[in-house]
Amino acid sequence: MSEKRLPRTTPEEAGVESAAIGRMLDGFLEKGVGVHGIMLLRYGKVFAEGWYAPYRPDLTHMLFSLSKSFTSTAIGFAVQEGLLSIEDRVVDFFPEKLSCRPCENMEKMRVKHLLTMNTGHSVAPQHMLGELNKDWVKIFLESYVDCEPGTIFTYNTCATYMLSAILTKLTGQTVDEYLAPRLFEPLGIQGWYFEKCPMGNATGGYGLNVHLEDLAKFGQFYLNRGMWEEKQLLDPAWIDAATAKQTDNQNHGETPDWKQGYGYQFWRCQPEGVYRGDGAFGQYCIVLPKQDMVIVMNEGTGWLQDPLDVLWETILPAVHEKPLPPDPSAYSTLCKRLKELSICPVQGKEAVTASAEYSGITYALSQNPAGIASVRFDFSKTNPTFTMELCDMPPFTRGIGRRSCTLPLGYGCFKEGKGCFEKQECGSFTFFYEQCASSMAWKDEKTLCMRLVWNTTPFIDDVTVSFDEQGIVLNWERNYSMDPNKAFQVFGRHM
């Protein structure tokens, strides 16, 4: 976690009612919003923060498409340094990638169209992001662009990737390497990680992992219009342009906060003047200039409008122009509640007589979307564990070979452990083994329940294992996923 912590204050000193934050938490609960971490700032000071254990402030979290706002910022620095213009043609950066003349609309595409998701694609060429051994830049340049750039908004992660590729072509550095001395180091952002494409470019439109407090600094940096510690790092004109409505996006989806206009990889929001960067499953960096506020959240949520609705309904009405009188009772109640936030571990029996029969046995599994080749349980009283071995399994072959991971299991509580896989894709189901908190309990003599919280990600897996003399039946369900295989059943036999 960053050593440069933001200053702290109380809600009342920030002009916000402590009770309103409690109402916010109630609203999340009522709507089923799976918040993992939240931080609220005003006047540059944190006035409320909380993590739902086993999520913690010292762990980074995946940002998904919120990464786009960082890539856009890198382009802003590059423009400031005269390395490119937003009017530059995209094809002119990569003449060596063109085996033939691109289509007419591709030739018309400019950097500004990448920034605003106005590339002219009525359907984004997202398939290229799944190509593990191909040149994504070449695939993009050879894609057919059916509309004139600037005439249609189509959410397009590939466009952001191209911004990343352009920056690397100009500087020889990935987005995060380029941002390090210009943004990360001045703000005290540490421990970030940005995923890379097969060609070594940062993925750009997704893949950045940072601490929640560092995300709050990023939001404050934008609220300050590019200034940090009395030093102007980025031209305020770029900040203003990036966060303004550059294009209409009324054609995008059904939710109101996704129809308020789009800037340079930033979304406009319903409340006047408010804008945000956001990512899948509820990763938010929300900037409220009129209120002098920043709100950041990590979540595992399916309906992304819900958390925003809760904020607009509970927090905005509770913001006052001046500090409020201290409210020790409400503040004490709030602090206690924030400290006790948690995700419920599996509940049930701590142990059953039959567990000894199943301990230490390796079960070979049938083909499954996760590519889990085998599992093994150790039901020792002192240190129960769950071991998985992954391998390439047809039709999903990603060249990962065989890898194993052993996770400690807590009886009715979470135990934390680390796997050895880092980030690996196997089939269409993605496992993240950097950090996991696991719990277990017995439903009955032959049924084990586990909850695996991958607490640097939004993902939580609930696993039910049914044992019998022949083997096991394993039912696996993930809270949220971008693929259809978030739930599957697999059979296992004694090896």
Can you lay out the helices and strands and say which pair or pack?
Layout: H1 18-31, E1 35-42, E2 45-51, E3 61-62, H2 67-80, H3 104-108, H4 111-116, H5 136-141, H6 157-171, H7 175-187, E4 193-194, E5 208-210, H8 212-223, E6 227-228, E7 231-232, H9 236-243, E8 267-268, E9 275-279, E10 283-288, E11 293-299, H10 305-314, H11 328-339, H12 355-358, E12 362-365, E13 372-378, E14 385-390, E15 403-408, E16 410-411, E17 415-417, E18 423-426, E19 429-432, E20 436-444, E21 447-453, E22 460-467, E23 471-478, E24 487-494
Parallel strand pairs: 16-20
Antiparallel strand pairs: 1-2, 1-11, 3-5, 4-5, 6-7, 8-9, 9-10, 10-11, 12-13, 12-24, 13-14, 14-15, 17-20, 18-19, 20-21, 21-22, 22-23, 23-24
Helix pairs in contact: 1-10, 1-11, 2-6, 2-7
Description:
- The protein is built from 12 helices and 24 strands.
- The protein is an alpha+beta fold and 495 residues long.
- The protein folds into 2 domains: 18-338, DD-peptidase/beta-lactamase superfamily (Beta-lactamase); 355-494, Calycin beta-barrel core domain (Lipocalin).
- Strands 12, 13, 14, 15, 16, 17, 20, 21, 22, 23 and 24 form an 11-stranded mixed beta sheet that branches. It has a 6-stranded antiparallel beta sheet with strand order 2-1-11-10-9-8. The chain has a 3-stranded antiparallel beta sheet with strand order 3-5-4.
- α2 (67-80) crosses α7.
- The longest helix is centred in the N-terminal third of the chain and has 15 residues, at 157-171.
- It starts with 17 loop residues before the first helix and ends with a strand.
